[in-house]
Specification:
The protein is an alpha+beta fold and 129 residues long. The protein contains 3 helices and 6 strands, in the order E-H-E-E-E-H-E-E-H. The strands form 2 sheets. It has a 3-stranded antiparallel sheet. The chain has a 3-stranded antiparallel sheet with strand order 2-3-4. The chain starts with a strand and ends with a helix.
């Protein structure tokens, strides 16, 4: 059954200045300059001591996966419960921002597309029960 895109938003990653994430973002930027292809992934962290609705932003460059920050809490607040209930969420694209001029620190921006199953797929499990 096909899924339909329910919504798409552009996200500026939060927490990019903690736990050596600036160094990780510099590595991502260098990789993108050579390869121009990264994979952005989202991982729920329901046991995060600071925020039980935390969603980590991970970037895969070749064989390396680095946590570069988190989905901002105002977005994670409504997205995390949906992810926990099986909503398919895809992270797309990704761009390292900043690092020059007034914006000395690096940031990371990407898009999130969240999907809902087609009407037929959504009804089938209810009928089987």
């Amino acid at each position: 059954m096909a899924n339909k895109i329910f919504g798409k938003i552009i996200v500026k990653t939060a927490g990019t200045s903690f736990e050596n994430r600036q160094g990780k973002l510099w590595n991502v930027r260098k990789f993108m300059a050579k390869q121009n292809r990264i994979v952005v992934m989202l991982r729920r962290e329901p046991h995060n001591e600071h925020d039980p609705k935390a969603i980590a932003v991970l970037v895969k460059t070749g064989k390396t996966v680095a946590k570069v920050g988190y989905v901002p809490s105002d977005i994670a607040f409504w997205l995390a419960p949906k992810m926990d209930n099986g909503l398919i969420v895809r992270a797309n694209g990704g761009e390292v921002t900043g690092g020059s001029g007034k914006a000395k620190n690096l940031g990371f921006t990407f898009s999130i597309a969240h999907e809902i199953p087609s009407a037929a797929a959504a009804v089938e499990p209810a009928i089987e029960q």
